[in-house]
Design goal:
Number of helices: 12
Number of domains: 3
Number of strands: 0
Radius of gyration: 30 Å
Strand content: under 5%
Length: 327
């Protein structure tokens, strides 16, 4: 199957954005093939989901197919973005140590290209692989400036891009290049300390929002759903009795039952808990990491905790007080 041709089904801007994201990964196949496989798999999975939902809930097959495909594409795009940003974050964490090691090699008398290549260490992880890759490119005859700029394009990091520009500027100008690298490494470490301090200060807000969504709302919904069920049952019984009495005594008073069914209430609560978990996860991501999509990891945890606690609380209350509160 020609996945490269299938990838052209994406609109121009979306396709370009996908290809840019895929360029941050060391893929063994063409990016167009991966993109084609993504859209083909998304269409197949969306069709299966739409067929199941249309059969169970008697809704439009086409609408379910379109909605499922949009949700799957959104999730895939978000996961790819998170993976690229996770790679960039790791590079940013080890970059100051690499710069300081490179500065030490420069002071030892090595040339900039040799100092850069000798700075590769296994503990640098992805950055070590990138440094070795640049070493192979330089050995093959590629200019060091060009190789460094290619490195900045392979990692989705603004910090790395600015650092590479600084290194290229130092290579061109000469001078105290080692001191410049040391100062840059110190600045990066200082920025990291400031970010960690800010994260520790906002941890209280993260805990509060997480607790409200995962524990507060399910417990309150568990109590309220039970009370609504009791009211629906008892008001229905009272309504039938008062109706008989009012008809016999010719009284202009009648109490009718509640029109809302307990099943509808439970469905409403489940939808509300899932919605609040999804939106709350994006809020947690925005507060803790600065980007809403970073909260995608919280969604399954919050959904499982909130729904599980709701049904547990409802089960306990129903078995403990169900006989006491019914007439």
């Amino acid at each position: 199957m020609d996945y490269g041709a299938i990838s052209k089904l994406y609109p121009g801007k979306i396709r370009k954005n996908y290809l840019r994201l895929l360029s941050y990964f060391d893929l063994k196949v063409k990016k167009e093939y991966v993109l084609g496989f993504i859209i083909f798999s998304g269409l197949a999975v969306s069709l299966i989901i739409a067929l199941q939902l249309a059969r169970i809930y008697d809704v439009s097959l086409f609408l379910m197919f379109v909605a499922s495909f949009i949700v799957i594409e959104f999730l895939v795009h978000t996961l790819i973005t998170l993976a690229a940003e996770r790679k960039a974050k790791f590079v940013e964490d080890v970059l100051p140590d690499a710069l300081q090691l490179m500065a030490s090699n420069l002071r030892a008398g090595l040339t900039p290209d040799k100092a850069f290549l000798v700075s590769a260490r296994p503990e640098f992880g992805i950055l070590n692989e990138e440094i070795n890759r640049i070493g192979k490119e330089i050995t093959a005859g590629t200019d060091m400036e060009h190789a460094l700029k290619k490195l900045a394009r392979r990692v989705k990091s603004e910090v790395l891009g600015k650092t590479v520009d600084l290194i290229v500027l130092g290579l061109r100008s000469g001078g105290e290049f080692s001191s410049l690298l040391d100062q840059t490494a110190d600045n990066l470490k200082q920025q990291k300390l400031v970010r960690n301090k800010v994260n520790s200060n906002i941890l209280m807000y993260v805990i509060f929002i997480f607790s409200a969504i995962a524990f507060g709302s399910p417990i309150l919904f568990g109590f309220s759903s039970f009370l609504i069920q009791v009211l629906v049952k008892n008001l229905g019984s009272v309504g039938s009795m008062t109706g008989d009495i009012a008809s016999q005594a010719s009284l202009p008073i009648q109490i009718t039952g509640v029109a809302i069914s307990p099943d509808f209430v439970i469905l409403f609560i489940v939808v509300s808990l899932i919605t609040s978990s999804i939106l709350g996860s994006f809020v947690l991501g925005a507060i803790s990491k600065g980007k809403g999509r970073e909260g995608l990891n919280y969604i399954p945890i919050l959904v499982a905790l909130s729904l599980g606690l709701f049904f547990i609380v409802r089960f306990i209350i129903t078995n403990a007080f169900g006989g006491l509160m019914s007439f």
